[in-house]
Task: structure prediction
Amino acid sequence: MAEYFTARGLPVPRELSTNPLTNWRRLLGIALTLAVISVGLQITNIDISHANPQFASRVVGQLFNWDTSILTPQNEFETFWDTAEGLMIVTIFLGIIATAFAVVVALPLSFLGARNIMTGNPITAAVYVVVRVLFTIIRSIDVLIVVIVMAVLLGIGNAAGVIALAFHNVGVLGKLYSEAIEGIDPGPIEAITATGANRFQVIWTAVLPQIVNPYISFTIYRLDTNIRLAPILGLVGGGGIGILLFQSINLFKYGAAGLIIFMIVVIVAAMDFISAQVRKRLV
Amino acid sequence: MPSILSLRDVVMVYPNGTRALDGITLEVQRGEFVVLIGLSGSGKSTLLRCVNRLVTPTSGTVIFDGIDVTRAKGAELRRIRRRIGMIFQQFNLVRRGSVFANVLSGRLGYRSTWRTIASRPDRADVQKAFENLGRVGIAEKAYSRADALSGGQQQRVGIARALMQQPELMLADEPVASLDPATSHSVMKYLEEINRKDGITVLCSLHFLSLARRYGTRVIALKAGKIAYDGKPADIDERRFKEIYGEDAVEVEIGPERSQPQPMSANDAALRALADDSDIGRPDR
Result:
């Protein structure tokens, strides 16, 4: 095929000049991928030979043999808020409060992290870079790690969970909000600037109306995610229903654990549905 | 009488190296209707944006009513900008906002930041907004969302917004390039009216030479960032047309403003005859 081109003194198109079967780069890529996987299998030493099928099947059975005693206070010292459903409500609000805290911080920061607003003078351009790097660093630290740190700093409980979740979400929401600002139509900014409005008036009049919907949409998306994450926080000291789940598993109370897992699944599925519906109506 | 606008040796080089304006010097007198023509990329938009400093020229000075726009900063620059109205090819309205709110936003340069946040316009501003909407014939659309209007109506909202500034100079950046021919004339007539009745100086870029001839009192042609022609619209003949638009260009007409056919001007007839002639390709410079 290549002779057609060489005979006429034309360069051979890239797609025709290499044979995929003898392309050493491609072969090297495939070899490297296989090497990484085989080394990984050696190092991680995945071995399921120690699993005990009888024990496992018994546990699975217990997971579905729900222990409903956790749904009522067990002694005179316990209140509704110590029951599984009480803790579930607390957990949902952990997610809501964490989202609210994150929004309050991320909202003003997002303007400082939007390129189209911050370019124009070297100082604001530098602020933009700093804010965006900050968002990236915050985002890159996993929530569970932040919870562990916060549990050490603030003690195990709801405060550690909420603050850790809020912290992580400042990074996520800050990035999403900033990108929403960067995606707006620049025309109105130009027009409002031309009327002699100051910078603040320009943002208020030309930018805000364009970002309200994306902001609400992103906030609901994160609220959904945070309510999913909240039950996990208790496993590492963040409060909420996760603590009860963690205790139940440690005490081999699989009937209680199974019921809690079921409750979490129901709440997460409900949140997923509600958030999708609300977001659909916004767009 | 001193000129309202004067540009001296204005050069604009964008960061990517594009030399959009290459030494523009011109004077605009109060009351003129100046039409800027030229190919896409010839610097028309940049020139307009240098006047109210939406872009800052690399060198040269822009003087508006005796004030150096190129040196102005902060509050002084905003005071200059509010005396200069501007309308845009894409209208640049806040699409989700009401027509009324869009028109009122033309008053921002006169309003405190606090009044902007509290959404508490003066009674006088509200009245002025309705007057200006009435002037451009869309008072009944005040409560509609801006993006629910047709292109021509949106541009009229743009004119009403600019009128709220009580400008002395109106910049119009391809105001009819997104509109159909009939709507184009209606928008151009509003510009003509504010020029003749209110004495607002107009600096307007246009694609169609026929519109430039019909509405301009003066035509400035830009070519590669330089002034290629500056004079009366009627004096643009075939030779000048080719100088501005290049040898291959053929003039096209935007439709007549009334439904009955208008008599073709002698000039247009000559241009058409020339355009049909195969001999006109030779260079004449």
Notes: Chain B is about 35% helix and 20% strand. The longest strand of chain B covers residues 19-28. Residues 259-285 of chain B have pLDDT under 50 and may be disordered. The interface with chain A takes residues 52, 54, 78-86, 88, 90-97, 105-111, 113, 116-117, 158, 161-162, 164-165, 171 of chain B (CB under 8 Å).
